[in-house]
Write a sequence for this structure.
């Protein structure tokens, strides 16, 4: 009976792959045919052909991306029918459904049905594939009648446990086949408004955030395809860790960015000094930047004589003030209002010149347009006008504000001497993550430097809109039957417009969004959101005026001095009370013994943690070792072979603060050479040495924490750092310490060493 079931599933799955191959072949030959037709014919024909080509290319890419674990589930329903659940929807040529996309509404039962709330499901079956072959099946029988009917039961380790025990590769894997009910509810929550997902370590917040992005793109395709989804994470190493998950879910409309990359053209480095991060993240930066902008508008202290074509004109403080007030009254950003300011002054100076020329009775040069040009060209006038109102870029404004002590002193009245010292930095220092929101704030107040750039962008946008309308018309003309063959929704007018543009400007919404600071995203997903400062939130809300957000994080893991200690406090300035909270309560990463040790340490340090329940017991208790002074790194070298053996080909991380971090890395490199990764972005190697901030969001089979008490720093709430470090392992945790052990660890010590 069991074998018969397995044989049946193998057969069915073979059929699914055959259909997949057929569709791939079909799209490939359709694409070839369209390409062969070349670019001849009327423009309508050409654009129709482009529409097909774009459609086939897109579909092919999607079909290629789902090769692995194409199908992973089957539901047997009350009506007697069965439904297969997989990465995409598949139908036969005559539109009989073979497999349902995991994001479709009917697939939600696969994740949510329980014995208490069956939702019409009698049995849920997990199909475990190796390559294209079903190697095992596992059943959850939800309808007790089915048990008495003598139906065979398949049991194994459990699809979930198998996934959780698998070795880590340094890249996150998708969880489509084992999404749990509480996670599924969040993934499928309505898109409008702000949803906060609070969850302790390892509860799948990152996984949920990524799958939610895929779900939203599927279910709100129309809106999100053109506006895009922005996914923000804490660091570039974290982005690297998650970057392959989404394509494997078959999604492309997502812009992924670390907080340091949110300003086009700027790649910021982390801010190392927590005091600077806290200060630059605070709300007090808003009036400071505004003051810095206003400071660039100066009223001269005395009359200024300007020479134009041999005539002496007078620029008075009163004149400048009046022009400035009128320009400010336009309400436009600084650079745009400057145009008004310049126009007023030039007009007044031209009038002066005109009366002087007329008074001097020197012939017929009084044509006003000539005089206006003389005024405009005059070096004196240009210098004087610029001194009163300098054209300004955000980079220049912030670099000078923070880099020139005289400017800082002139505008930072509300800051103490000590705070100004913190803000002060060399003018050419690299931008840090804490500077990015200041640049954004400045850019917002300054507006476009060159009005022409704005006009050009507007012209291109208008052109794009016109092309979009044409493309929509083309799509309406496309044979409806063709679109029904499972290729509907694959090409949108947006794609077509992008396709029709010159190759160098043929960009998806996501690609266009990356380069445009003023892009309004359809939805923003923020991971590790507890780390964001007031100023970073301000920037993000600007990127999504509709305030459609998924905010994912764990308040207890905050390590940034500028980060949040409560969701309410962090979000109120931007969302008021209009946000909903969902909680994830099960830890899928860390074995129970390790999770409990971390929770005990956190509680003893006074950190309120949600301490999710671990889904499994581990094979090993945490190992806590005290060593002699100076013996931490030697001990690390001694125990590493044991850790590597236990990790069995998986990843071992060493987490420490400087200077131990550098010492450990050096010592390990001597022994293990290129197997040792040096921190952010290098976890292709099987030994990774990094600090707790870099470790945030990541996970490893085994973790060794050096000198745990060095990861505690109450002043900046860095208790979270040790908590983060202790909750990274999927199998083993070892602490090596020469100093006193942090409270809670000693109490709960269950070491072998
Ligand atoms: N339903 C699931 N099925 C299989 N694996 C899961 C599931 N949910 C979570 N996991 C796994 O658990 C681990 C932790 O998930 P994730 O990194 O998303 O947690 P997190 O809440 O973001 O953690 P942290 O806040 O500690 O960084 C990952 O390996 C993830 O793949």
């Amino acid at each position: 009976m069991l074998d018969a079931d397995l044989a049946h599933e193998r057969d069915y799955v073979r059929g699914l792959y055959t259909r997949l191959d057929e569709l791939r072949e079909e799209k490939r030959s359709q694409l070839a045919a369209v390409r062969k037709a070349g670019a001849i014919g009327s423009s309508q024909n050409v654009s129709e052909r482009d529409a097909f080509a774009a459609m086939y290319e897109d579909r092919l890419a999607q079909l290629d991306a789902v090769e692995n674990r194409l199908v992973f589930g089957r539901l047997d329903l009350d009506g007697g029918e069965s439904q297969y659940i997989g990465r995409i929807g598949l139908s036969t040529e005559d539109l009989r459904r073979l497999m349902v996309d995991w994001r479709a509404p009917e697939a939600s039962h696969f994740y949510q049905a329980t014995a208490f709330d069956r939702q019409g499901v009698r049995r849920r079956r997990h199909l475990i594939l190796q390559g294209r072959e079903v190697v095992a099946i596992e059943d959850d029988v939800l309808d007790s009648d089915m048990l008495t009917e003598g139906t065979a039961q398949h049991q194994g380790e459990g699809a979930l446990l198998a996934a959780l025990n698998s070795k880590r590769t340094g890249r996150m894997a998708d969880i489509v086949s084992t999404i749990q009910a509480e996670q599924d509810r969040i993934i499928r929550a309505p898109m409008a408004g702000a949803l906060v997902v609070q969850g302790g370590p390892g509860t799948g917040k990152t996984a949920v955030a990524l799958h939610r992005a895929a779900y939203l793109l599927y279910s709100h395709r129309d809106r999100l395809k053109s506006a895009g989804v922005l996914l923000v994470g804490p660091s570039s190493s974290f982005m690297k860790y998650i970057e392959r998950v989404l394509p494997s879910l078959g999604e492309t409309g997502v812009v992924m960015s670390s907080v340091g990359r949110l300003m086009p053209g700027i790649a910021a480095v982390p801010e190392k000094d927590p005091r600077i991060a806290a200060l630059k993240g605070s709300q007090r930066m808003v009036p400071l930047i505004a003051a810095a902008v206003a400071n660039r508008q100066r009223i001269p202290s005395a009359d200024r004589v300007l020479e134009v074509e041999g005539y002496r004109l007078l620029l008075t403080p009163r004149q400048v003030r009046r022009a400035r007030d009128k320009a400010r009254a336009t309400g436009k950003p600084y650079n745009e209002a400057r145009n008004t300011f310049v126009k007023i002054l030039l007009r007044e100076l031209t009038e002066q010149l005109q009366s002087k020329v007329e008074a001097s009775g020197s012939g017929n040069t009084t044509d006003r347009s000539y005089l206006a040009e003389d005024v405009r060209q005059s070096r004196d006038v240009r210098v004087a006008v610029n001194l009163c109102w300098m054209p300004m870029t955000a980079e220049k404004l912030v670099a000078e504000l923070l880099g020139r002590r005289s400017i800082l002193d002139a505008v930072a009245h509300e800051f103490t001497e000590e705070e100004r010292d913190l803000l002060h930095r060399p003018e050419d220092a690299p931008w840090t993550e804490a500077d990015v929101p200041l640049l954004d704030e400045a850019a917002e107040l300054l507006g476009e430097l060159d009005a022409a750039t704005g006009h050009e962008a507007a012209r291109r946008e208008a052109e794009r809109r016109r092309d979009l309308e044409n493309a929509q018309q083309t799509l309406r003309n496309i044979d409806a039957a063709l679109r029904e063959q499972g290729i509907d929704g694959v090409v949108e007018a947006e794609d077509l417009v992008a396709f029709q543009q010159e190759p160098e400007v043929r960009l998806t919404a996501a690609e266009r969004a990356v380069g445009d600071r003023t892009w309004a995203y359809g939805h923003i997903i923020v991971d590790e959101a507890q780390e964001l400062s007031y100023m970073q939130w301000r920037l993000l809300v600007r990127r999504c005026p509709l305030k459609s957000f998924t905010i994912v994080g764990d308040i207890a893991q905050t390590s940034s001095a500028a980060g949040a200690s409560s969701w309410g406090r962090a979000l109120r300035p931007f969302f008021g009370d209009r946000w909903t909270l969902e909680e994830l309560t099960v830890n899928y990463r860390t074995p129970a013994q390790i999770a409990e040790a971390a929770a005990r340490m956190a509680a003893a340090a006074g950190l309120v943690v949600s301490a999710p329940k671990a889904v499994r017991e581990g094979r090993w208790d945490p190992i806590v070792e005290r060593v002699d002074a100076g013996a931490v790194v030697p001990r690390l070298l001694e125990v590493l072979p044991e850790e590597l053996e236990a990790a069995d080909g998986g990843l071992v991380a060493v987490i420490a603060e400087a200077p131990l971090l550098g010492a450990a890395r050096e010592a390990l490199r001597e022994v293990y050479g290129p197997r040792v990764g040096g921190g952010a972005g290098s976890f292709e190697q099987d030994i990774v040495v990094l600090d707790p901030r870099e470790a945030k969001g990541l996970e490893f089979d085994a973790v060794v924490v050096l000198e745990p008490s060095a990861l505690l720093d109450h002043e900046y709430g860095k208790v979270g750092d040790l908590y983060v470090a202790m909750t990274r392992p999927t199998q083993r945790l070892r602490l090596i310490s020469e100093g006193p052990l942090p409270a809670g660890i000693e109490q709960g010590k269950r070491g072998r060493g």
About this structure: Residues 394 and 439 are 6 Å apart (CA to CA). The chain is about 45% helix and 15% strand. The pocket of adenosine-5'-triphosphate is lined by residues 160, 163-164, 173, 175, 178-180, 183, 199, 201-207, 554, 557, 588-589, 697, 699, 727 (CB under 6 Å). The chain has five domains: 2-165, 181-262+517-587, 274-294+394-446, 304-388, 592-737.
